[in-house]
Amino acid sequence: MAETVVTTPGADTTCVDAAAERVSALFGRLHERLAGWRDAILADQGADGMPAAALDDRVERLVVPALGEDDPVLVGAGFVAAPEFTGGDDLHFAWWLGRLEENPLTGATTEPSRLDLASRSYSDYLRDFRSLEWYSIPRSTHRTHITGPYVDHLCACDYIVTVTSPVEGDGRMLGVVGVDVYVRRLERELLPAMLAIGRPVILVNEWGRVMVSTDPSVLVGSLAEAGTGAREDSVRCVGTPFRLVATEQAS
């Protein structure tokens, strides 16, 4: 079925389509990057997975170049391995952080660094990572999933979205490969195209949570009204679970 486009006064349908395409292109690039990392990890694994040290080295070589770019889109990236992959007793975090501005956890950093869970004494409440959305949904759906926006208390102390893709082999869940992106970086990437629409719009996820907003009365992270994503003045961003929604009804 063809998608409905915004045709209300003050909204240029060409600009709406351009903004939706911008969203699709951004997340399409993230999905492609995850697919490449996933394939590289699977290609390197042995019959019994991979020892943790070898996995860490491989993932570091994959993700650190992306985190160390001059103007990186990513603030975190890596692979969270199931015990079956490393032969350990719990999930194994091969995860790196990009350069971070001053925050209560790490201070400011000038280059990519390894996430050290041992130094996060407050992370005990996250002991069972397998129950968290960014791991459990890719495991159950066998598909890439986008979590957020949410406040990341583990690493960045800021609003982020997390994109994770399942890594599977021989019918087994081996872990998830993923990236973190600041919401403010999403805003930088998407707001110019959204502002060009000429009326207030929001980008919402499949549950109606606001990811980016050009309406000053609608905050990022808030829940839009019920049924927002299904309204006739919403536009699907192809290849994503997101929609652009006008926040003001035409008179």
What does this structure look like?
The chain has 5 helices and 10 strands, in the order ααβαββαβββαββββ. It has 251 residues and is α+β, with helices and mostly antiparallel strands. The chain has 2 domains: 74 residues, no CATH class; 154 residues, Beta-Lactamase (2-Layer Sandwich), CATH 3.30.450.20. Strands 3-2-1-6-5-4 form a 6-stranded antiparallel β-sheet, with helices on both faces. A hairpin with a 7-residue loop joins strand 4 and strand 5. It is globular and about 55 Å long. It starts with 12 loop residues before the first helix and ends in a 5-residue tail after the last strand.
Record the SSE blueprint.
Blueprint: H1 13-44, H2 52-67, E1 76-81, H3 83-86, E2 92-97, E3 113-114, H4 133-141, E4 145-151, E5 159-169, E6 172-182, H5 183-195, E7 201-204, E8 210-213, E9 234-236, E10 243-246
Antiparallel strand pairs: 1-2, 1-6, 2-3, 4-5, 5-6, 7-8, 7-10, 9-10
Helix pairs in contact: 1-2, 1-5
Summarize this, please?
This protein folds into two domains: 74 residues, no CATH class; 154 residues, Beta-Lactamase (2-Layer Sandwich). The chain contains five helices and ten strands.
What Rg, in angstroms, do the CA atoms define?
19 Å
| Helix-strand topology string | HHEHEEHEEEHEEEE
CATH architecture of the largest domain: 2-Layer Sandwich
In CATH terms, what is the fold-level topology of the largest domain? Beta-Lactamase
The total domain count is: 2
Q: Mind describing the biggest β-sheet?
A: 6 strands, antiparallel
